[in-house]
Amino acid sequence: MLRDLRQICERPGGAEAEDFRAAARGLLERQFLLLERSRDRDLYRLVANHFDYFTNLFDALGWTLHRDDTFGLIGLLPTEAEGFARLRLVDSLMLLCLRLLYEEGMERFEAREGSVYTASETLLGRYEALLGRKRPLVSEYREVIGRLRRHSLIETGDAAEDGLPALRILPTIRLVTGERVQERLAAFLDTAEEETADTEDDDGTVADENAPGEDGSGG
Fold first, then answer.
1. Would you say residue 53 has pLDDT above 80?
2. Given CA atoms 113, 120, 38, 24 in this order, what sign does their dihedral have?
3. Do 166 and 98 belong to one domain?
4. N or C: which terminal CB in the chain sees fewer CB atoms within 10 Å?
5. CA dihedral in degrees (173, 175, 176, 180; nearest 10)?
6. Considering the domain boundaries, does residue 206 fall inside one?
7. C-alpha to C-alpha distance for 42 and 74, rounded to whole angstroms
8. Of 179, 183, 206, the residue nearest 194 (C-alpha)
9. What domain range is 61 assigned to?
10. In the 3-class helix/strand/coil scheme, how is the chain assigned residue by residue?
11. Rounded to two decimals, what is the model's pTM?
12. Residue 85 confidence (pLDDT)
């Protein structure tokens, strides 16, 4: 790797070693680089121009480098399923709702430059309707979308009247919500449903795990 990098940098007009380090660091920190984003543009072009080098570099580290010239994105995904970041359940469920909204927008030809725009209220409404779960508190919701934004899966816009931001669902969401991820989440939810069924009382009610104990203490 070091020999390859030295040879590239020695070419006339070649980039500096620090430029390559910055590009690799950008991918590891953001997971995806988007050509349209000004902060990503130079890094994106460097990786695109030396795609084989970066492919070999990240392959040695257990990552697969993906490139989509149609949407202008380059990103990293772990080679093994176990390498995926372990998201909280609410993050994972919100992510799949975003993927659904993305595909619906694409089917209705509402996408702009590969992205689909939606309101936070639309996402939260779909989360409640499809999953039968209470929507998270506003503070928790902001934390969730903040984490998804850091992974370059969404971008946030101006706040609506409810104070929640508009959302831009990026095409990168397709890469991180593939069939393998959905299968793992479905298995988790099946297990959770079985565990919930085991906690039902004889009269069919579900025990509240947050309810106080018989002595009046919490849990």
1. yes
2. negative
3. yes
4. C
5. 130
6. no
7. 12
8. 206
9. 2-79
10. CHHHHHHHHCCCCCCCHHHHHHHHHHHHHHCEEECCCHHHHHHHHHHHHCHHHHHHHHHHCCEEEEEECCCCEEEEEECCHHHCCCCCHHHHHHHHHHHHHHHHHHHCCCCECCEEEEEHHHHHHHHHHHHCCCCCCHHHHHHHHHHHHHCCCEEEEEECCCCCEEEEECCCHHHHCCHHHHHHHHHHHHHHHHHHHHCECCCCCECCCCCCCCCCCCC
11. 0.71
12. 55
Residue 27 has pLDDT above 90, yes or no: yes
Among left, alpha and beta (phi > 0; psi -120 to 50; other), residue 114 is left
Total domains present in the chain = 2
Give the number of other Cβ atoms within 10 Å of residue 92's Cβ.
18
Residue 106 sits in a domain whose CATH number is 1.10.10
b/e per residue 175-187 (b: at least 16 CB within 10 A): bbbeeebeeebee
Q: How confident is the model at residue 13 (pLDDT cuts 50, 70, 90)?
A: low
In a domain, 216, yes or no: no
Q: What angle do CA 89, 116, 29 make, to 5 degrees?
A: 55
Place 207 in a pLDDT band, splitting at 50, 70 and 90.
very low
